[in-house]
Amino acid sequence: MESAPILKLEHLGVTFPNHPVFNDLNLTINQGEIWSIIGKNGVGKTTLMRTILHQLRPTHGKISYLPSQGEVTIGYVPQFRNIDADYPLTIKDFVGLNLTGWKLPWLSAKERAKVQKILDQTGLKQLAKRPIGQASGGEKQKAYLAQALVEAPNLLILDESTASLDPVTKTELLDLVTELNQRLKLTVLFVTHDIPMAQKYTQHYLMMTPGKVEQGPIANLTTEKVWEGENV
Amino acid sequence: MFSYEFMRNAFAAGTIIAIICGIMGVFVIARNMSFLTHTLSEIGFSGAAFGVFAGWAPLNGMLLFTVVSSVIVGQLSARSERREAATSAISALFIGLGILFLSLANKNASYATSILFGSVIGISAGDVQQMLWLSLLVLVVVFVIYRFLKFDSFDHTGARVKGLWTNALSITFLVLLALSVSVAAQIVGSLLIFILLTLPAATAKYFAHTVGGMMVLAITLALVGVWSGLVLSYVTNFPVSFFIAAIEAVFYFIALGWQRLQTAE
């Protein structure tokens, strides 16, 4: 049985002054699916993600969050983060930063349990007290992932967040995302240039090229198609 | 020493200042705003000079200038790549204005010195009370927006992604910083206020393991600097700001040395 849609983009377009980024983009993403978003640098992948995150207003078309906007919560893991190596911020504190609201400065027992749970799920339990600035690249990415997931979102965006990782760490992180996808029915958008990883870990693709957007099941994404016109 | 009222007032004021600077300093360091803090202190000098020219209390002139300019500075330097140049331009303009207002007010150089370097003798019980209210205002606002401010200061990217109003937070923080500068300038002077708003927190960063710990340590270091500075100034009759600056700088260099040792190991 096909899952219910969680995100629907209809005739979506974003135009910067004198520069259309993408136009007439139609896409329906169902709950629990994993999509890869691929395309060359500058083609508008991050712009599309920022539009989905409400950081940019679309010039044309509309975005529907289903069943309603309030019921779709989004976790976002960007590629870069400016974290000072000397910050006195443990991985546990870093994950807890995402728990905001007009609340007391310190975390409640319920919030501490949430942090603990996501640290367990992401395999960071043993590293909870390590300063985030002193963590390795892979540990940092896991911490970013845990922070994005601490509020239990139902849509996760990984924006080239595995780009700087070695193949082993990359595989470990994506195995973890797949496990969370299966266990929590988490919907995932994976922005990447890494076609083999997209083929291994995602079920659908959206390939963005200047003036054209193509989508389909990942099995249809052949190497020839990717290299035709140098699309990544 | 405590038989003199001015020393009791100076210790009370110094304690308030150390607490406020320890807390605000943590966010100044996390937000990489040391230079901007220095600029705000120069704007404070200009505001105090304007206060004297207009016949107000210097603190009121400082409050007016620092609060208004902090909003302008925040808007002008919202983009980090132009922050240094914009801050330098504003700094130059306000130092010039400070000198102009002092000249127009027909005050001599010693008055300018007391604004720039502070004075323990001139602090009255009324000044202490005013500092206390302003500091409480800053503390209450920090308490209320603490989680947002912490998120934005230590992980700006994450805060933006979360959809926090990072620009509004930045301006709110600058206004709080302006209030803190005006409060603290009473004792260490506008030229040296950035010492207490940057060095204790910058030192604490190397020893603390949590943000709360960094805050407690920054307050402690600021208190040690201010109290020791007041005692040494009383004993030697040298300026209090010199002792505070020297003590905080020594703490900072020790922290740097300690961090180098840790890295070498």
From TrEMBL, chain A:
GO terms for molecular function: ATP binding; ATP hydrolysis activity. Keywords: ATP-binding, Nucleotide-binding, Transport. Signal peptide: none annotated. Gene3D superfamilies: P-loop containing nucleotide triphosphate hydrolases (3.40.50.300). The keyword Transferase does not apply. It comes from the Bacteria. Residues 7-232 form the ABC transporter domain. CDD domains: ABC_Metallic_Cations. This is ABC-type Mn Zn transport system, ATPase component. It comes from Levilactobacillus parabrevis ATCC 53295.
From TrEMBL, chain B:
The chain crosses the membrane at residues 12-30, 50-73, 85-103, 109-125, 132-149, 169-199, 211-232, 238-258. It is found in: Cell membrane; Membrane. InterPro entries: ABC_BtuC-like, ABC_TroCD. It comes from the Bacteria. Its main location: membrane. One of its GO terms (cellular component) is ATP-binding cassette (ABC) transporter complex. Pfam families: ABC-3. One of its GO terms (biological process) is transmembrane transport. Keywords: Membrane, Transmembrane, Transmembrane helix, Transport. This is ABC-type Mn2+ Zn2+ transport system, permease component. It comes from Levilactobacillus parabrevis ATCC 53295.
